[in-house]
Amino acid sequence: MGYLLRRNLPVAPVVTRNEYLRVVDRAFDSLSRQRRGAAYEDALKDLVASRPVRAARGFASLLARRPGDPTLHRMLGISYFHAGKTRLAARHFEIALKLLARATTPGCSLLRSLRIEFEASVVRLALVAAYQQLGHRAGLIRCLVAQNQPLAWEMYTRPGA
Prior knowledge:
The chain is mostly helical. The protein has a single domain (19-146), classed as Serine Threonine Protein Phosphatase 5, Tetratricopeptide repeat, CATH 1.25.40.10. Helices cover 67% and strands 4% of the residues. A hairpin with a 7-residue loop joins strand 1 (2-4) and strand 2. The chain starts with a strand and ends in a 15-residue tail after the last helix. 27% of the residues are buried. Residues 1-5 and 152-161 have low confidence and may be disordered.
């Protein structure tokens, strides 16, 4: 970790470009390599094989055991979306975003915050598709604007600002 010295700003630790890129790479890789068990893999295979109703049943049973898992809500939403149940899909995408927002804590690691941001971006894009199909213009605009508003990162504000 490096340090940034500027006028008008207190000395504060910052992440160097190389450190940031390494963490981004690890966060992105970790999203695609998460091990979630055989039932998750089976539901994922059903989704890939264009069996969204069967996939939704699998993800729903997993979600019954782990209702606070935003990834399961996202995957169930994707399954519902492909099964033509757009309202249910949007509902699960919204729940996933709320859970991701709650997962952020002050002082969480850069890696954790990036994982949360990546997951939230994927959920928002899926929610945009659902809102578009539902004709929910206000929700669509809210999601598109939110893509530029991080969930996990506290932005630095000058004292007295």
